[in-house]
Amino acid sequence: MNNPFETAIAQLDQAARITPLDPKKLEQLKHSDRYTEVSIPVDMDDGSQKIFTGFRSQHNNARGPYKGGIRYHEQVSLDEVKALSFWMSFKNAVVNVPFGGGKGGVIVNPKKLSPGELERLSRGYIRKMYPILGPQLDVPAPDVNTNGQIMWWMLDEYQKITGSSSLATFTGKPIEHGGSQGREEATGFGGSVVLRETLRAELIKLPKEKTVAIQGFGNVATFFAESARSLGLKIVAVSDSKGGIYQPDGLDVGGVEKYKKKKGSVTNLPGAKNISNEELLALPVTVLVPAALENVLHVGNARKLEASIIIEMANGPTTNEADAIFTKRNVLVIPDILANSGGVATSYYEWYQNIHGESWNKEQVLAKLEKQMVQAFQDVLEVKKAHDTTFRNAAYILAASRIMDAMG
Ligand code: NAD
């Protein structure tokens, strides 16, 4: 099953088989409230004009404004944006922030645009989308290939068109333009709190010395690795798009970061063995952390995995078929809508600070986030135990019931 929206719906249906959910509301949740497709004319540097296609899917706003990132990628499609907005509704409900789910995207390879073209495209997206955005309506954020700079252009355009001076229509902004301290480390840090709670729950027998392999070494993976190491876990493998490295005695995460900054990749690190991304997934480790791409754990490799725990830091890294294999094999899978929800929880803190004219320091943000992640984990665990089911089903049941309560 390759259509991401069908994957998302199958996950919800599976949870609905564990416990009865209101059938009418269930059906409503299988549709976005609204999706918008726009054409964005952009003046290119050579004097020509190109028309780009942009999307925004607003899945559900029963619990608060639609919330979710804007992605720039050549493979962006309406189905992908719809699936991602659906997952945002559930993620926000699991971590219990008062937001619904939204997601946007533009079909473009931003690496082929000059900075000027990128700015004109980002401002053009807002000129077409501004009527459906706003602090109480729909609050975008960065996603794949977008960043704080792009959010700042978008906010500036939004403010010029609408006359609004509120900073709260976008999150993930640079700190000097109303962004929040702690946002950069939030997703990885939040995931490590979830891992710590998973270990404390003692749901399965684990070796005394716990090892971790992480696919990816970007924003989420590096902060996850640093926080996990401070919990006393041994990070033995990391990777990037060029390949991975393995050191059974443990990697010096800070040293790997410096090395990657200098060389552009983690591969060929002196003292570590080069491995492929596929080999990394099958290493004999306690915890496997996919923190890069979608659909990397599939029916072709699920039986080869040796990890006892999978922490889904990427969005949608496990196909439904692989998930069924992990359940059968008693592998604990901590689903993305719980594991990586620290990012959006901190986006909520940014939105809240903007609305109330406050500015919290990093320690305040991370302390608040830690509490929120522990609570989210405990809430999901309670449902898991009550229904004797997987973490994924439990997270869906919890989120669906919170959203359905708010739907009235
Ligand atoms: P990033 O761009 O900073 O890092 C991505 C990493 O993946 C890089 O190390 C890159 O080299 C690696 N990568 C790319 N192609 C690869 C390949 N073919 N094989 C192996 N590795 C490959 O992105 P990020 O912000 O760290 O996001 C990682 C994942 O986490 C994504 O799935 C994203 O949707 C998800 N996520 C991110 C956040 C956030 O706050 N950044 C929040 C929730 C979910």
UniProtKB/TrEMBL annotation:
One of its GO terms (biological process) is L-glutamate catabolic process. The keyword Oxidoreductase applies. Residues 180-408 form the Glutamate/phenylalanine/leucine/valine/L-tryptophan dehydrogenase C-terminal domain. SUPFAM superfamilies: Aminoacid dehydrogenase-like, N-terminal domain, NAD(P)-binding Rossmann-fold domains. Signal peptide: none annotated. Substrate binds at residues 67, 91, 347. It comes from the Bacteria. PROSITE patterns: GLFV_DEHYDROGENASE. Pfam families: ELFV_dehydrog, ELFV_dehydrog_N. The active site is at residue 103. Gene3D superfamilies: Leucine Dehydrogenase, chain A, domain 1, NAD(P)-binding Rossmann-like Domain. NAD(+) binds at residues 187, 219. GO terms for molecular function: glutamate dehydrogenase (NAD+) activity; nucleotide binding. Belongs to the Glu/Leu/Phe/Val dehydrogenases family. This is Glutamate dehydrogenase. It comes from Candidatus Doudnabacteria bacterium RIFCSPHIGHO2_01_FULL_50_11. The lineage of its organism: Bacteria, Candidatus Doudnaibacteriota.
